[in-house]
Design goal:
The protein is built from 13 helices and 10 strands. It is α/β, with parallel strands linked by helices.
Length: 339
Amino acid sequence: MICPHCTTNLKRRDRTGGRCGTCKKPFVFEPKANPLALHDVKVRRLTAKLAEGGLWYTTTQLWYAAARKTNKASTGVTAGCGIVVPIIIGSVMIVVGLTGGPEPLAVVGVVLLLISATIIVLRLAGVFKREVAVNMPLPQFRKEIIGGWARVYGKPPGGIVDEPHVRPGPPPAQPAFAILCPDLSVLACLRVNDVERRFAAALAVNVAELPAGTPVAVLHDASLDGEVFLATARHELRGRRVVDLGLRPRSILAAKDPFKLRTKARQPERIAWLKTQTDLTPKELDWLGDGWSSPVAALRPAQLLARVEKVAAHLRKAGAPDRDEKAAMAVGFMTWPGQ
C-alpha cells in the first residue's frame, strides 16, 4: 500500500494504528476493515477517473465505482470459500480414514465431497440463484466513506457532488430535445456538468415534466424496470420522436466487464409483457428474467456525456425516424405489466 500523504510504499509493519509509519499521518481506510476493500490510494484513483476532463460526478457514481471489484467477484460462477472448505475437510478425512484412521471417517469424507460436488454442479447449472448486490448500502457509503474522507482530509473527494444537494436550474428557453431518466443521480450528474446549457437539453425524471413537442432521449437501467420505463414512455409519447440512449441488456451481454447486479425476485408476468410489447431478444429476456440488471448510474460522467453528445448530433440531422424507431412506435399496448 502507498501512503496517500507522502507516497511511501508501506509494508504491513509500517501501517500501525491506521497511520503511516513514515509521515505519521492517518489513513481513512484499511482494505480489510471495510466491505468494499477500499484504501485511500484506491479512492484517489477512482475519483480521478470519474473526474477526467474536469467533470463532476455524484456520490452514487463513486459508490458503484468503488463496488466494481467486489461486485465482479460476486458475479462469478465459482463456488467460493464456502464450498472450498468442506472439499478440503472431506479430502483430509478420506486420507486419514484410508491411512490408519477410523474407516468411517473416510466414508464421511466421501459423502462430504459428493455433497460439495452436487452443490457446484447445481450452481453452475443456475439452479441456485445467488443475489448480487453492493456490499455496502449507499447511506452507509455516504456516511462512512465520504464522511470519513472529509474528517481526515478536511473536505470530500475532489469533483464530487451529493445528488440530494443538486437543485434544478432554469430549463433552456427553447430546448432542442429532452432527456428523460428516472435516476436522480444521473440527472444530477448531467445537470452539474452543464448539459442543459451546452446541448439545450431539458432534463426530466418523468413524462409529465417533459417540454411539449421536443424529441426525447431516454436514459435508463438495463433492467426489468428500465425496459418497462422505456416502453411506457414510448407509449405515452407516441407521435413524438423517442430515442433510446440505453442501457440495453444486449449491450451489457456484449460488454467485456459490465457492472451487474442480481435480485432473487422473479417477475414472469412482466417478462411475458415485455416479450409481446418490445423488440427484446429471447436472450435479453432470459437475462432479465433471471434477475440480472446493470445501473445506468454506474457509467462514468464522460460516458454519459458521450451518449448525450451523440444523440444531440443525431437529432440535429433532419429526417424521418429510422427503422427501429418506426418499429417501436408501431408496438401495441393492449395489455399492461403487473406491478
